[in-house]
Amino acid sequence: MSKNIAILCSGGDVSGMNPALKHFVEYSLKKGLIPYFVYDGYEGLIDNNIRQASYKDVSGIIIRGGTQIGSARSKRFMQPEFREMAKKNLDTLNIDMMIVLGGDGSFRGLDVFYKEHGIKFCGIPSTIDNDIHGTDYCLGVDTALNIIKTSIDSIRDTASAFRRAFVIETMGRDCGYLALISAITSGAELCLIPEVAYDLKSYEEDFKEQIKNGRRYFIAIASEGIKQESQEIADWFEQKIGIESRVSVLGHLQRGGNPTIYDRLMAYKFVTHAINGILDGQEESVICYSKKGFEFKTIDEVTSSKYELDLDLINFL
Ligand code: F6P
Q1: What is the CATH number of the domain that holds 243?
Q2: Which residues, judged by CB distance below 6 Å to any ligand atom, belong to the binding site of ligand 1?
Q3: In a domain? residue 21
């Protein structure tokens, strides 16, 4: 068996990837392996942008968001001829083990690659959307939630000063996790997520009554995946509730920033399990985390079903 192991980041970057890269290098070396970085996701695999990594490459990166080795969403990797090129590049460097930080789309591509070319891999769920079936936690989520929390706290200051409603739009693609957790933990008055049907009309009487009773502002959290535009919700506040309103789209702010302690620690734990798993014979797995602890799941388990948000959480709203 070769001792060469590579890591790459695929899809949307998350804060926590850099701590994962640091630990990947350190832990690989500790286990007698030779670590390699693949730059710019599967694109780098195809273009042979693969280099041996050392302690020097990861010095000081633990505090940084993004990823030192870049990430990408590769369309080319979906085509067999490019996967063939990727395999040749790995063969030249004698690499037959890979760790991939990414979401379920990235893992699906990797599974095809394994089935065609036998490159062993372990996926580490990494997306701020927290929408991967089979794992309760994806790397980067805690940092994103903390950025949202800080943003909402700041917006609350100006909302209360001006007697306004703020519609704050969070990322998450089709998953309302970021919006729901943020709404609960920031005490928002309204939370709209794709998983739950809503009728704005049902809030009208109550919200108007609250204003009569002295409420000065509203915080509404809207997940980017809902059908309505955030501006439509702001218009509803103005027209039906009678309060001036503004929209604040948090956007890519949520993806960057200094990784939280939790994400740094989870990065270390995910990487340790992933490397141990491959060395112990896991050939095509994703390392997942739930109340039961860490466990390996197959790509099919992770990608065949849609992630289901724990809707009991809505009771906390
Ligand atoms: O999947 C992560 C994510 O940040 C989603 O929340 C968002 O919908 C999307 O990526 C944004 O993608 P891009 O960075 O390509 O604009």
Answers
A1: 3.40.50.460
A2: 12, 127-129, 171-173, 224, 255
A3: yes
Quote the pLDDT of residue 2. 85
Q: At what angle do helices 17-30 and 261-279 cross, to 10 degrees?
A: 40
pLDDT attached to residue 169 = 98
| 171 CA closest ligand 1 atom index | 6
- Asked whether residue 59 falls in the same domain as residue 204, the answer is no
Q: Separation of 252 CA from ligand 1 center, angstroms? A: 8
- For ligand 1, the distance from its centroid to the CA atom of residue 179, given in whole angstroms, is 14
Q: Which of 236, 254, 272 is the last residue of a domain?
A: 254
- Ranges of residues in the chain whose predicted pLDDT is under 70: 1
Compute the distance between CA of residue 270 and CA of residue 111 in angstroms, rounded to an integer.
19
* Residue with CA closest to ligand 1 atom 14: 12
- Let me know if 129 is a catalytic residue: yes
Close Cβ partners of 130 (under 8 Å, ≥ 6 residues apart): 137, 138, 141, 172, 175, 177, 178, 307
Q: How far is the CA of 173 from the centre of ligand 1 (A)?
A: 7
Range of the domain at 265: 4-140+259-306
Q: Are residues 123 and 21 in the same domain?
A: yes
Indicate which residue's Cα is closest to atom 15 of ligand 1.
Answer: 12
Please tell me the predicted confidence (pLDDT) of residue 6: 98
The per-residue pLDDT for range 238-289, each reduced to its tens digit, is 999 999 999 999 999 999 999 999 999 999 999 999 999 999 999 999 999 9
Which pTM value belongs to this model?
A: 0.97
- The Cα–Cα gap between 120 and 291 comes to 27
Q: Which of 96, 104, 129, 142 is catalytic?
A: 129
